[in-house]
């Protein structure tokens, strides 16, 4: 938004009293170009070797369609679950003092630090029919490892910190006086939570959701061990890209990648718009 | 910190220059080619190999370095990189400076010859035995005592038998598995349509498609999934040694495929680096008695069995082995027909997880 208003005047307004705008702006643009825009540009350029028609054909082939549905569907579900569960975890970590709180706080970051392949192998070991949890579920007829459910578990694992870490600081900054004011004005506890606290947390939760979703869509390392990788059932889109590469089909691989990129971009944009709306609607955070 | 604080008083032109030089520095930094930091002494060569050969080439490289030192007085380092065969070929095509490649199948070296033109198309005729200093074959691993009574390939197509094999699209070894099953049924019925149905029946029994041979070994042995695991002969023996003969047995089918993992000199690289003589000597060494002995000790079938320890050779039962050239008309043809996009393997799977009938 701010960029558009600048563009109408055709010169950059000095936006703050702090000097160094030219320096930092130049750096930011260069950095973003080198790290994000140029690699993605090359990706799209390589995929364009197929032409729009070829791209459309790749996107609508049943196997790619099944993989895309799986990847985005399960990622959405995992991010949604974490939006709720992560909020609860963040709530517990910021609002209550209990022994071992710092330890628990540090544990939240582990999925960030662990190499994803290690996470995948560990989760598979636990959720396989002969593993601790898998062994308990097997008599009930529930299979986790080597099914789409396994993919869901892996994605929930790797995307949890994103929600917790975005909600936590906002929650910590939330003034308790607001809650007290709400109570003195006669609101019930449920009303306070639903109409006072949650709305001000919503933008942060949405950001966390978007980060978790984006991370989950691109995840390969951990999923590949637990998925079973059966075509049309538990084959994720990133695996299809790897398969194309194994066949030296660079155009095909970049085509699927470009499609994923487009879908991810549209979904993230949509989330950002909802977030901007909720910020306007609910307030200041 | 001092610099930062003083920067608040820098006049405009200085700021501009600073901004410019920062951008320039960032650009230059990005232009440094990471990963190719080769401080190459004249006597180091790179061998790009496939996944299960770690133990083999570790032993061979040591023996070769010792012999080269004795012969020429020169110390030689051999860097060996391992990974899925197809992926390794791709890194060479994309510019990894490999002096020699030792991959799981000829198709992958063909790809390097065709796509990057780093070696001539007739590379496979340059060394004995189709450029394969050792061969291997495809066998079965079953649970201890063979509870499902698996004796041969047709037992794998039976309903109720769970078969573990990696995805032939991502694993070179899995392509040998697939072709061996096909060759078995073709040999029995002489009917390609029946062979296709047979292979489909086997893949109907596959509950997990791992991306590589090592992943499948884990799925079968550690996770306890499946009744039978189709495996490289050397991986089967390695798994037996690693996980214990009290948990798994090896079963040899009546017929299998002669897997020839080939080796080749990458001409364009050795000529640029001036390592041709050394690299050639390294490949010749693979056929020499010392290396052939190591080959057999690592559960690969040596090209010159007379050089190997008879005790090692006794571990290889005789079975009928067919070649890919005789049954499938060579790798290029088999690859295009069975494993390429839209090939026979792709057509086994149908939307919704059902199978072609």
Automatic annotation (TrEMBL), chain A:
GO terms for cellular component: plasma membrane. The keyword Cell inner membrane does not apply. Gene3D superfamilies: MetI-like (1.10.3720.10). It comes from the Bacteria. Its main location: membrane. InterPro entries: CysT_permease (IPR011865), MetI-like (IPR000515), MetI-like_sf (IPR035906), Sulph_transpt2 (IPR005667). It holds the Pfam family BPD_transp_1. Keywords: Membrane, Sulfate transport, Transmembrane, Transmembrane helix, Transport. The keyword Transmembrane helix applies. It is found in: Cell membrane. Residues 68-271 form the ABC transmembrane type-1 domain. It is a multi-pass membrane protein. The chain crosses the membrane at residues 20-45, 66-92, 112-132, 144-164, 193-213, 220-244, 250-274. The complex is composed of two ATP-binding proteins (CysA), two transmembrane proteins (CysT and CysW) and a solute-binding protein (CysP). PANTHER family: SULFATE TRANSPORT SYSTEM PERMEASE PROTEIN, SULFATE TRANSPORT SYSTEM PERMEASE PROTEIN CYST. Belongs to the binding-protein-dependent transport system permease family. CysTW subfamily. Part of the ABC transporter complex (TC 3.A.1.6.1) involved in sulfate/thiosulfate import. This is Sulfate transport system permease protein CysT. The lineage of its organism: Bacteria, Pseudomonadati, Pseudomonadota, Alphaproteobacteria, Hyphomicrobiales.
